[in-house]
Amino acid sequence: MKKCSNSxxxxxxxxxxxxxxxxFVLALISLTANSPLSAQSPSGAANGNxxxxxxxxxxxxxxxxxxxxxxxxxxxxxxxxxxxxxxxxHKDEADPVVQNRHATNSSTLxxxxxxxxxxxxxxxxxxxxxxxxxxxxxxxxxxxxxxQYVQIVNEGYQVFDKATGNSVLGPNSISSIWTGFGxxxxxxxxxxxxxLYDHLADRWVVTQFAKATSNGPITDECVAVSVTADxxxxxxxxxxxxxxxxxxxxxxxxxxxxxxxxxNVFNSTGTSYLGPQAFAFDRSRMIAGLPATFVSPxxxxxxxxxxxxxxxxxxxxLPPGGAPATFVGFPGQSINPNYTTYHFHVDFAxxxxxxxxxxxxxxxxxxxxxxxxxxxxxxxxxxxxxxYLDGIGDRLMFRLAYRNFGDHESxxxxxxxxxxxxxxxxxxxxxxxxxxxxxxxxxxxYRPDSIWRWMGSAAMDGQGNIAIGFSAxxxxxxxxxxxxxxxxxxxxxTLGQGEAHLYDGTGSQSGTGNRWGDxxxxxxxxxxxxxxxxxxxxxxxxxxxxxxxxxGSFKVASASPTPTPTPTPTPTPTPTPTPAPDxxxxxxxxxxxxxxxxxxxxxxxxxxxxxxxxxxxxxSISGLPSGASGTFSPNPAIQSSALQVTVASSVPKGTYxxxxxxxxxxxxxxxxxTAKLVKNQKP
Length: 683
What we know:
683 residues, 3 helices, 42 strands, mainly beta, 42% strand, single chain
């Protein structure tokens, strides 16, 4: 993943309105009856549709049988795939919907203890470097199924037992899922990953984008759908070539008739924004492992159109019969900013019949854009302004969560705005997005104090309670992971249950291009439809390229949204013993080569705790040749230590395997790890 240009992007207006077919005229009449078209509106003309087929599909071996990632694949530390900025057009206005105080369980907002519940599960996810990306940011997201939670980052995935938080598989490389597949998906996987749980089919969906050529733009999307409900099993694998442009920031969703995706499209060099583009993948064929197609109506919509996200289905109730997939746009327009609501009617049998039209334009409340001209705007304790973090205030944040309650539909989403000089989370609930009339049921900017809150993710449980997870930081604190919530009975436009800390980081990020997250993920447990699961990133110490991730679950209300079946008596299970505190050691890279003049070989020794191990570990080294010595910094260490092996020129040519021994805990545990030092005679 090479860093792309960070230049300002030329505004391009590529949106054409082609009014040739009678079918489009009828669609236009229907569309106009709901709401007027605007500058956000694409053409629904059939002859603008694009379709394509997977250039390959197959079935993978079980992931638990896949070869582990190889240290030889590790890349140098670098910024992950560039997140090009969208042209800024928004006209700042006063924000009339700010919640500027903390809330209690009463209707009075004031500074008191919150009512929102503490976490049920709270455990570490994948740490830097993911598996092999060696990059920042991690693009952390995750999904929850019946028994498993799967987390995915740049560039790796890990499967956890959701009851215990124990690792079931991984972390392993996302690209390893496509081992033996060939093409861009096997060799050109480039990040921006998303993991979804398709609760309608009890399957897992893994995606990341890829380069068809090593020096070219991102042109491919790789999608894998699990064969069963087990995330560690086999997957139906697909490679899709989308075109010759640079297809950035892919976000997928589950809808009954397809997997829908939004992309921010740039020219092939990444220097000019061409607009968002919608895609639909044939879900029915993909969950059966059959060759599949995609449909994309009209292509990128033009440089004047703001990014959008597809609605992702939550809950047991399907959308109304035949309801189109819904996309909602970011309200970044300079005139009449609105939550542009699009309808995507897909037709996989006859792609020319697919339409993508504007259904409604509900107006967004005024706001001020967050750091529109620079990425470095969110402060952290202990670093200079050059290391401030990316506020990414030019798009909606993942996910756009949809739920059908029968008497109404709700979609909840969020983005980040400037609220009196600090970042605040603007959240919203739209109703009746497929059937109309689309209405803003509530929206508010959550900014209860002077802490900066951004990188949010919103979801709604089966009772209509809303939770929002986000990052929090300021010049006085290091980045933290928090969440806030509201009951369906709380006053509208307020997160009336207050705020809780999922995990407080103890370090700030520096020297990584100001990147943070790109997105996080809040999802709802499909078993009880009431437990929220959230994952985001944090830092354990002041460092560059050393992020950590955290996973936590919580409930907003204790009641279940659906009747609980009468349980059948079952034998009392034997309790699973709690594993004793322990740790494992790993050394990266696995081998370093020095030439005849000698020098210093650099390694990292990583401590992976298990069973609540939280002690420091003391290191020693053995097996080095005469004339070589090793030093650890720090020693002892809690998470990792830098190992420097100094090699004199007199050390003979050869390959030397050395051993690092670590001892820690009470009672003391000792473990070892090995690596290689290669000395050759090349100059």
